[in-house]
Write a structure and sequence with these properties.
It is built from eight helices and 15 strands. With 289 residues, the chain is α+β, with helices and mostly antiparallel strands. It folds into two domains: 119 residues, D-amino Acid Aminotransferase, Chain A, domain 1 (2-Layer Sandwich), CATH 3.30.470.10; 157 residues, Alpha-Beta Barrel (D-amino Acid Aminotransferase, Chain A, domain 2). The strands form two sheets. Strands 7, 8, 9, 10, 11, 12, 13, 14 and 15 form a nine-stranded mixed beta sheet that branches. The chain has a six-stranded antiparallel beta sheet with strand order 2-1-6-5-3-4. Strand 3 and strand 4 form a beta hairpin. It is globular. The two termini are 26 Å apart. The mean pLDDT is 95.
């Protein structure tokens, strides 16, 4: 995710104030950096409008609460600020990041005196994967890392710290010539990719892992609704690796990934079938409607 050169002229909202991109600074001694006490939302702007903006703002507040961070701004405040940032930056199609973190007023594991901060930034960012990969499907390599048990991590929060295993998994996949990683959970069931939810298709039916130890994505829920509206049966259940490899089609969903077909997992190839193509089309129409 490379930032464009013109982003330096962009506007950031931070703790209720608008700043130039270059002025969006924090001290190196802060709890978010040292102890990963940070949550975030990734959102897309289509035709000047933030897709499912309120759902993202509400989840940000919930994520922060799970990490025991009380945000001084309401959902309505955040909604207003996001719209103003997008308007000030003048982007018709962009990516938006809203995030909350503990500051450096107190260090140590709990740091009750650390201030809770919030900021919003946006920049132009095209599709996560190239047009060519959307036509052939991306490749996934099974990761040596696994999604943790809900008893060992705040899996219902979009917490920055939970993404480290995704980072390591994607690095491992890239180093071995694959586009992304396939992650299993602590029980050995299929979970998702390094940062996007996973769907499989068998005999025209969509089957997707139960989100009991990873984030139940907003795009994931949108795709489930679109599929049901189209008369496609959707089943949520625990999926074994062997069962996944018997699928007819596989695709990923996420704010960044949107709907991305999978053409290969490990050494096995998959076709981009009619259900995947329909979900890609229906989602593209919805976000731009």
């Amino acid at each position: 995710m490379l930032l464009p050169e013109n982003v330096k002229d962009s506007t950031i909202w931070m703790n209720g104030e608008f700043k130039n991109w270059s002025e969006g600074k924090i001290h190196m001694i802060n709890h978010g950096l040292h102890y990963a006490s940070s949550v975030f939302e990734g959102e897309r702007v289509y035709n000047g409008k933030i897709f499912k903006s309120k759902e993202h703002s509400e989840r940000l507040i919930r994520s922060a609460a799970i990490l025991k961070m009380d945000v001084d701004f309401s959902v309505e405040d955040i909604e207003k600020a996001k719209k103003e940032v997008v308007a000030k930056c003048g982007y018709e199609n962009a990516y938006l990041r809203c995030f909350v973190w503990r500051g450096g007023e107190g260090m140590g594991i709990s740091a009750p005196s650390a201030k809770i901060n919030i900021a919003i930034a946006t920049w132009e960012w095209p599709s996560y994967f190239s047009k060519e990969l959307h036509e052939t499907g991306i490749s996934l390599l099974k990761s040596p890392w696994k999604k943790p048990s809900p008893e060992t991590a705040p899996v219902k929060s979009k917490a920055a710290g939970l993404y480290m295993i995704g980072t390591l998994s994607k690095i491992h996949a890239n180093e071995n010539g694959y586009n992304d990683a396939l992650m299993l959970d602590y029980r050995g069931y299929v979970a998702e990719s390094s940062g996007a939810n996973l769907f499989s298709v068998k005999n025209g039916e969509i089957i997707t892992p139960t989100p009991d130890c990873f984030l139940n994505g907003i795009t994931r829920l949108t795709i489930i609704d679109l599929a049901k509206e189209a008369g496609i049966k959707v089943t949520e259940k625990h999926i074994s690796y062997d069962e996944l490899m018997e699928a007819d089609e596989i695709f990923l969903t996420g704010t960044a990934a949107e709907v991305t077909p999978v053409g290969k997992i490990d050494d096995q190839t998959f076709k981009i079938g009619p259900v995947t193509k329909q979900m890609m089309t229906d989602y593209a129409k919805l976000v731009r409607s």
